Amino acid sequence: xxxxxxxxxxxxxxxxxxxxxxxxxxxxxxxxxxxxxxxxxxxxxxxxxxxxxxxxxxxxxxxxxxxxxxxxxxxxxxxxxxxxxxxxxxxxxxxxxxxxxxxxxxxxxxxxxxxxxxxxxxxxxxxxxxxxxxxxxxxxxxxx
Length: 144
Known about the structure:
Layout: H1 4-29, H2 36-39, H3 58-75, H4 77-112, H5 134-143
């Protein structure tokens, strides 16, 4: 007799064997005719421009991480919303504290500027009148 863990092990082992056999059979029967077009990067029907190995702006990753953090936390509210009437006032209070903490976190990210897609660029000051160093002043007076 197999235990429950033994049944799970047999299930996973069967799944792994099935996937390996399916991939092996697919490799045997599929045609292999690589062309230049097949080996290029596919960009939604558009012709690719440049190398596919481009550096993305870090803003993409920051926005994605912030989205994941707040999305997962909001998903935690679903079980609370389903049973909060059964939990009474204490359950309501705990949910309200959780929502307040989410709001504080969102306000912090907003204040920090991480929710803005493009931050304003810092412009260097432009000096309208510049005084050259003394060495260059001597050269300028000698050449004039």
